[in-house]
Amino acid sequence: METAAIAAFTPPVRTLMGPGPSDVHPRVLAALARPTIGHLDPQFVVLMDEIKALLQYAFMTRNELTIPVSAPGSAGMETCFVNLVEPGDKVIVCINGVFGARMRENVERCGGQAVVVEDAWGAAVDANKLEAALKAHPDAKVVAFVQAETSTGAESDSATLCALAQRHGCLTIVDTVTALGGTPVRVDEWGMDAVYAGSQKCLSCTPGLSPVTFSERAVARIKQRKTKVQSWFLDLNLVMGYWGSSQKRTYHHTAPVNPLYGMHEALLMLRQEGLENAWARHWRYHLALRAGIEAMGLRFIVDEPRRLPQLNAVTVPPGIDEAQVRQRLLQDYHLEIGAGLGGLAGKVWRIGLMGHACSLKNVLYCLGALDAVLTGMGASINPGQAVAAAQAQWSHGAGK
Amino acid sequence: METAAIAAFTPPVRTLMGPGPSDVHPRVLAALARPTIGHLDPQFVVLMDEIKALLQYAFMTRNELTIPVSAPGSAGMETCFVNLVEPGDKVIVCINGVFGARMRENVERCGGQAVVVEDAWGAAVDANKLEAALKAHPDAKVVAFVQAETSTGAESDSATLCALAQRHGCLTIVDTVTALGGTPVRVDEWGMDAVYAGSQKCLSCTPGLSPVTFSERAVARIKQRKTKVQSWFLDLNLVMGYWGSSQKRTYHHTAPVNPLYGMHEALLMLRQEGLENAWARHWRYHLALRAGIEAMGLRFIVDEPRRLPQLNAVTVPPGIDEAQVRQRLLQDYHLEIGAGLGGLAGKVWRIGLMGHACSLKNVLYCLGALDAVLTGMGASINPGQAVAAAQAQWSHGAGK
Q1: Which of B3, B36, B208 sits opposite A24 (nearest CB)?
Q2: Do the chains contact at B254 and A32, CB–CB below 8 Å?
C-alpha cells in the first residue's frame, strides 16, 4: 500500500452490542488521553495499587496476586496455564464452546495432558461428568472450565465445579472473561484458584488488558514449580516483582500506561455503581431484550436457568442470510452484533448487553433495527411487536 | 486497600527523558480517545492495513508479515523466539547488556540451546566473536542480538552481523526496540529476518504494543515447524489469519483497538516528518545534549562511533547519590530520566531523546535542571556551562 495518501483515522461511531468490545463510556475514553507517565513513576505505583484494590473488589477476593495482565484475554488465559501446568501434568478441561477448546490447546502447548469433559454447545458444564472424570483420574492436578461461554451465552456453576475440584485435590482455572462486572464472580466464596477476565466486556473498557487473580494455593503451586514457566513475559514469579506489594518495584516489562488509566476509570465506575447494582442492571435489560426477541418469534439457544444476561445467543430465522443482516445493521444503523462461532456459525447471532452498552436505549434501538431489517428481508417474524414488548417489560420491571 | 476513597486518577504532567516511555504527542493522546469499534469491523480492517503499510515504511521493508503484537516489547521479543526456535535448536545469542541476557532466557524457555557471545556493557557486539562462534557451531540455526541496547545506549552493526549470520545459514532475530524511528533499521537492505520494536520509544506512542516484521525466510521456517509454537497467543500461524492479507480475517484474539488508533497516528506523524528527517533530528539534539553534558564535565559510557543519539548513558559524578538526583528532578522539575540497570546501577543515568521528546526545549530543560540539582548537591561539575554550550552547538548545527 502507498503510504503517502494515508490520513488520520477517524472511526465511525458504532453501537457495540456484539460479544465485545462493548460500548466504552466517555469517562473511560477521556482517561485514555491523559498524559503518559513512566512505568516506574511513584504516581504510577499509586495507580497500580488502586487498580489492584478495585480488581479485588470486582473479583470479590482478598487475593494479593490480583492484577491486569498487559495483553488481551487470550494472554490472561495463557498466564493461568503456563504458570500452573508443568510438563506431564494432567488437566481436566471442560469444553462446552470455543473457549474451552482453546483451554485444551493451552494445556497441550504447556506439555500437559488434557482430559476432556464435553458438553453440548449452549449447555452448562455438567458437574456429574466432571465428578466422574475426577474419580477416573485421581492424578489430575488442575480442572479448567469456562464460567461464561462467550461463544454460546451459557453460564456454568463455578461454585459447584470449584468445590468438586477442591474435594479431589485439584486447583481450578476459570474463564470469567464475559462474566466479570455483569454477573457474580465470587472468587473467595467459591474457592476459585486462577481466574482471568477481559477488559472489553462488562467492564466496558477498551480491549487489550486481562484482569487475573490467583489464590494463595495457586501462588504456592507457582512458587514450587520444578520447571521454569515457558513464557518469560507471562512468568508470574517475575511479574510479581513488578506488581507486588513491596515499595520497591522491579522492572519486568513496560506496563501499558494509558490503557491502565482507562481500566482504572472503568473499575472506578463499577465501584461507584456497585457490583450488585451492575448485576441487576444486566438482568433488567436482558429481560427487556428477551421480551422483544420472543415477541418477534425468535428464540434463545441457552435454556433460561443457565442463560447469561449479557450474552444473548438468538436463533436466525429460517432462510435468512445472517451475515447480510449484520451487514445491514452495521451499514444502516452503525450497530454491531456478533456472528455465531464454530458449529453455531450461520445459525445464531450473539447480542451483547455488556457494561455501558447494557442500557434501555441500546435494547430498544437494537430491537427496532433488527425488526426493520428482518421485516425488510421477508423473514417469518412477527413484525412491529418487539420494541413495544421490550418497553412494556421494562416499565413492568421498573414498577411503573 | 479500602476502595471507597478512590477517585479518578489524574497523572502529573511529566517530561519523559528516560529510556521510555517517551513524551507522547498530543495528536497521539487524542487519537486514543476516539470511539472504540469492533476488532472485526470493516473499518478496523482498513486501520489494520494502514498500520501494516506504515510499519513497512518505518522498518524499510516489503515483508508481508509486518504487524504490531498486541502486547509490550517483551512480548514482541518472545514472539520472535517462540516462533523461530524449536526444542533442541542451537541459537547464538550476543549479549552486551540487559536485553541480550533476556534473549538467552527466551531461548532456554523455548527448549533451545543458547551459545553466548559476550561483549562488555557499553560496547557493540563484536563481529569477529560472532564469526568465531558461527564457525565453532556450524549447526546453529539462529543468531540473536540487540541492535540498540536500551540498557547502555550502544548500537551494534546490524548490516554486518546479519550478513555474517546469513553466510553461515542462520536466521537473525534483532531487537530494535529503542532504534525504530530514531536511527536506521533497514530490514530488507540488511537482510534482517525477525525484528521487534517497541511503541513507547522513538515512535512516541504509549507503551503496550510491539511492532514486528518477519522475512519470507523466517515465515517459511515458521510454516515448516515440526512442533507447535508453545504460545497460543503469540503463534504467528494463527495471528497471520487475523492480520493476513485475505479479505476474510479469522478471529484470533481481540486486538487492542484504541492503542492501535494511537499507533496509527504516531506512525502517520513519522511518515509525515520522513524517516531521514527524524534520524537527523535525533542526531542534532543529541549533539546539543552532548555539548551540554561535556561542558558540565560528565562523560558518556559508549564510545562515539557506536553511540545511539536517542539513549544517552552518562556517568554519575563521584560521591553523588544518583537516585537522589532523579528524585529531585522528578519532584522539582517533573522530569524523568532513567537509572542504570544491572552492573551500571548507581553509576550512570540514561537520558532519552526519543521521538517527540527529542526537542530543543527538552535538551535545554534537562541540562538546566541537572546542572542546578548537581550544583545544589555540591557535585564536582562545571556549573552554569551546560545550557549555553548546548545552545551554541544547536545554533552552530542550525547554521545560525
Answers
A1: B36
A2: no
